[in-house]
């Protein structure tokens, strides 16, 4: 979440929570028809994972971890009709999926301190493989290698990017201090990125995966900073009187939109990623915040209370052609544009708390994804546009959850003894980048 509208109203305090209610969703199919027309999750690819055969393996636990994580990754992707290793191949005549089935298998080997797994794909059990790759790794890296394998398989089979090589950063709050943490997309390998011992808010991951912009009070006022993930260094971006917050990177990695009250009330600004060429886009008596770039970089969604209550608006990247996106509900905030550009997630205050909705960029259809009691806040999209991470306090403390674009298949990402909020999803990270940003400086 690019820090919610309450930042300028309630001294940076907002709670987050929600509870999934399948009975409510089962009563209406409108949301499913609307989203299904935009998201291709039907006609899943038949894939039979035959497992990995050990070859003089000395690292059974590493092989077991790799296989479990790989199966979970392929299942969570939602792209496959997955047949598991304990099931025999479907060789029956006229089998419903035999002609479309692809087979994935591997061979695992290890020595005293390293492992290798060789993976291949074939279209028929007796055919030669059409894809083969070797992965060398240390046993403690078996989870990371499983994520790499699943990403390669998904890319090979669909041509789409995979969230299995992504991380989700968030703000962890404990002992009066807020710092930036991140985990893998499935909630493992927690890493602490900042050690500022200060209050940090509204993180935003850069499109190249190497930086995170955020708001902090390092100089006793709310300024914008940029964290270099590989170096661990923090540099000022925008330092002006008032509150500078809610940064969002353009997809071309050239500009950052943000809100600032430098001129009195909160307005939307844009600057170069080095903090130069600052340009003000909105001119209003109202509070305007939470900018979100469209993937083309031609438009921005944002929140404004110019009508008396916070609502989501859209404008061109130069501030022209401002129009209202949300027309229902008295409080709508925190827009997040999907990577494919066809959906915008946002938060609405409902009878059952703050809940996450999605709509099209024309605002013609609005679909409620979460339900209470409690609040769900801060939607952020996965780079493939098929999942949303968000904050919820459904268990009493704020934690990070994910769900698919239909509001189904919710997964709790964090289970920590601290408050976790403000998630931001990384782009797909290559092996070198992932290692560099999770290495202690």
TrEMBL record:
- Report what the protein is called: Tol-Pal system beta propeller repeat protein TolB
Q: Which domain of life is it from?
A: Bacteria
InterPro entries hit by this protein: 6-blade_b-propeller_TolB-like, WD40
Keyword Signal found? yes
Q: Which family does it belong to?
A: Belongs to the TolB family.
Decide whether keyword Signal is in the record. Answer: yes
Signal sequence bounds? 1-18
Q: Which Pfam families match?
A: PD40
Listed SUPFAM superfamilies = TolB, N-terminal domain, Tricorn protease N-terminal domain
Read off the lineage from the record: Bacteria, Pseudomonadati, Bacteria division LCP-89
Going by the UniProt record, its keywords in alphabetical order are: Signal
């Amino acid at each position: 979440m690019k820090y919610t509208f309450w930042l300028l109203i309630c001294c940076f305090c907002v709670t987050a929570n929600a509870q999934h209610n399948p009975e409510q969703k089962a009563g209406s199919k409108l949301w499913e028809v609307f989203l299904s027309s935009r998201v291709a999750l039907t006609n899943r690819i038949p894939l039979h994972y035959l497992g990995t055969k050990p070859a003089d393996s000395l690292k059974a636990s590493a092989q077991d971890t790799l296989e479990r994580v790989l199966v979970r990754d392929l299942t969570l992707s939602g792209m496959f009709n997955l047949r598991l290793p304990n099931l025999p191949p479907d060789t029956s005549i006229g089998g419903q999926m035999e002609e479309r089935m692809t087979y994935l298998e591997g061979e695992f080997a290890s020595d005293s301190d390293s492992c290798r797994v060789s993976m291949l794909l074939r279209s028929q059990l007796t055919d030669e493989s059409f894809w083969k790759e070797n992965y060398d790794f240390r046993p403690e890296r078996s989870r990371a290698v499983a994520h790499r394998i699943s990403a390669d398989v998904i890319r090979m089979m669909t041509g789409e990017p995979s969230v299995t090589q992504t991380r989700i950063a968030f703000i962890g709050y404990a002992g009066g201090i807020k710092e930036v943490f991140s985990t893998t997309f499935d909630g493992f390998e927690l890493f602490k990125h900042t050690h500022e011992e200060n209050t940090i808010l509204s993180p935003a991951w850069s499109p190249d995966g190497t930086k995170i912009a955020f708001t902090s009070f390092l100089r006793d006022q709310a300024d914008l900073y940029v964290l270099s993930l590989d170096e661990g260094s923090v540099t000022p971006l925008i330092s002006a009187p008032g509150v500078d917050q809610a940064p969002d990177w353009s997809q071309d990695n050239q500009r950052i939109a943000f809100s600032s009250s430098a001129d009195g009330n909160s307005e939307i600004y844009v600057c170069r990623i080095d903090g130069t060429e600052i340009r003000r886009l909105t001119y209003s008596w109202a509070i305007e915040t939470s900018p979100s770039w469209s993937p083309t970089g031609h438009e921005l969604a944002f929140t404004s209370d110019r009508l008396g209550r916070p609502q989501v608006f859209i404008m061109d990247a130069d501030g022209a052609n401002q129009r209202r996106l949300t027309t229902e509900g008295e409080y709508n905030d925190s827009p997040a544009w999907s990577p494919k550009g066809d959906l915008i997630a946002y938060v609405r205050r409902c009878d059952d708390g703050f809940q996450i909705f999605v709509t099209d960029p024309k605002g013609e259809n609005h679909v409620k994804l979460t339900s209470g009691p409690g609040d769900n806040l801060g939607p952020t999209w996965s780079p493939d546009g098929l999942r949303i991470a968000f904050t919820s306090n459904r268990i009493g403390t704020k934690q990070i959850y994910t769900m698919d674009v239909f509001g189904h298949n919710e997964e709790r990402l964090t289970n920590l003894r601290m408050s976790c909020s403000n998630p931001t999803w990384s782009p797909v990270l290559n092996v070198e980048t992932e290692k560099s940003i999770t290495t202690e400086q």
